[in-house]
Amino acid sequence: MSDTERWSVLSYSTEETIALGEVLGGLLQAGDVVGLLGDLGAGKTHFVRGVGQGMLVDARYPVSSPTFTLINEHPGREMLVHVDLYRLEEIDEMIEVGLFDYLGGRGVCLVEWFDRLRGEEPAERLELTLEVVDDDCRCLHGRAFGERHGDLLHRWRRGWQEAGECESPI
After folding, report:
1. Residues 126, 143 contacting (CB under 8 angstroms)
2. Cα-Cα-Cα-Cα dihedral of 37, 40, 45, 47, to 10°?
């Protein structure tokens, strides 16, 4: 396996973006890190909602954007840690809020605005870029770093295909 594995897929609705997240959520394990990239409104939080469904997050802890709280924890099959770095610019700020304690820790960590880590990201990770194609359509580009996350990317793709979803060629 190469250092990075890739997969791109089109989502034609918010519901499909959530479903993609749900399939991935069913595969994630403690210590996994998923970095989310994309413009405002690209669907990052919708995707995380789907991951929460796949991880059986307790409905009493709804997944919403942690833009103001920065880090939200959601108990489920594994602890889902949802981080939003939009309001943080400096690595020192990320250290102060405890971000690095979560990356690769006991739970599954999904980080919006992952590019803010600027070279401090963990070596083992899955990066997912959500690209706006039009009002309804998104292109999701997955890129895995490390053997564990490469395997995760392959299983996510296979799970999406087995769920009977149409994989749109990119």
Report:
1. yes
2. -60
- According to DSSP, residue 76 is labeled S
Question: SS3 for 56?
Answer: coil
Cβ pair 126, 108 in contact under 8 A = no
* Class of residue 1 by CB neighbours under 10 A (exposed 0-12, middle 13-18, buried 19+): exposed
The amino acid at 111: V
Distance CA(53)–CA(25), nearest Å, equals: 7
Other CB atoms within 10 A of residue 127 CB? 22
What's the fold here for domain 4-121+138-162? Rossmann fold (3.40.50)
For residue range 64-110, list pLDDT tens digits in order.
Answer: 776 667 888 999 999 999 998 887 777 788 878 778 888 878 899 99
What residue spans define the domains of the chain?
4-121+138-162
8 Å CB contact between 118 and 125: no
